[in-house]
Write a structure and sequence with these properties.
Acidic leucine-rich nuclear phosphoprotein 32 family member; LRR_dom_sf; alpha/beta; 252 residues
């Protein structure tokens, strides 16, 4: 898919001025140039053109609000001086996997006063002696180079990209709303659970009462049977006594 068509699909019936994030990874650029992107994307803050065959960024439109630019895995070897003019507020730039061989190629980036993070992984320039020290000297505004600061401390995330604060605000708000909703719903759930627990306790108590009554009834029945047995024995004894008295009278 070519870049123009991809941009059209990414718009999803939105106007360019409504777009803050645009991902064009793995599409095809014509003659290594950026196409279909205009200065109408005035609110764009994040642009990703990974592996699209770019050889130049000369055709990049004016994007004053662009903060993060992904250009990794292309064939860019120079012409970076246009970035200061086209993206004056850039804070994160990823040039990993391009044809950058020496420090002079990245020297124009010193005009990007807001640039905080630069990635040059898999570029030949990283093989130069004292590469990191020289880049930090050349670009004093940098905080992170290839994911680490001057003291070799890792950036806040693994890609040295602390961007997306503004882009994720709406999503975070939605998450907060969901959490608040859940919290509001929680008391009702607890009351239902408490009600269920009370019902279970009442049922257990009723079962205990019933079992107690059954045991009492069994005891009463046992006592009644014992009483009947005692009366029967007494009756038999009286009968034997009378029989014995009758025999004595006959003898006399």
């Amino acid at each position: 898919m070519d870049m123009k068509k991809r941009i059209h699909l990414e718009l999803r019936n939105r106007t360019p001025s409504d777009v803050k994030e645009l991902v064009l990874d793995n599409c095809r650029s014509n003659e290594g140039k950026i196409e279909g992107l205009t200065d109408e994307f005035e609110e764009l803050e994040f642009l990703s053109t990974i592996n699209v065959g770019l050889t130049t960024v000369a055709h990049l439109p004016k994007l004053n609000k662009l903060k993060k630019l992904e250009l990794s895995d292309n064939r860019i070897s120079g012409g970076l001086e246009v970035l200061a003019e086209k993206c004056p507020n850039l804070t994160h730039l990823n040039l990993s996997g391009n044809k950058i061989k020496d420090l002079s190629t990245i020297e124009p980036l010193k005009e990007l006063g807001t640039l905080k993070s630069l990635d040059l992984f898999n570029c030949e320039v990283t093989n130069l002696n004292e590469y990191r020290d020289n880049v930090f000297k050349l670009l004093p505004q940098l905080t992170y180079l290839d994911g680490y600061d001057k003291d070799d401390k890792e950036a806040p995330d693994s890609d040295a990209e602390v961007y997306a604060e503004g882009l994720d605000d709406d999503e975070e708000d939605d998450d907060v709303d969901d959490e608040e909703y859940d919290e509001d719903a929680a008391p009702g759930d607890e009351e239902e659970e408490e009600g269920e627990d009370e019902e279970e306790e009442n049922e257990e108590e009723e079962e205990e009462d019933l079992s107690g009554e059954e045991e009492e009834e069994e005891d009463l029945n046992d006592r009644e049977v014992d009483d009947e047995d005692d009366e029967e024995e007494r009756g038999q004894k009286r009968k034997r006594d009378l029989d014995e008295e009758g025999e004595e009278d006959d003898d006399d």
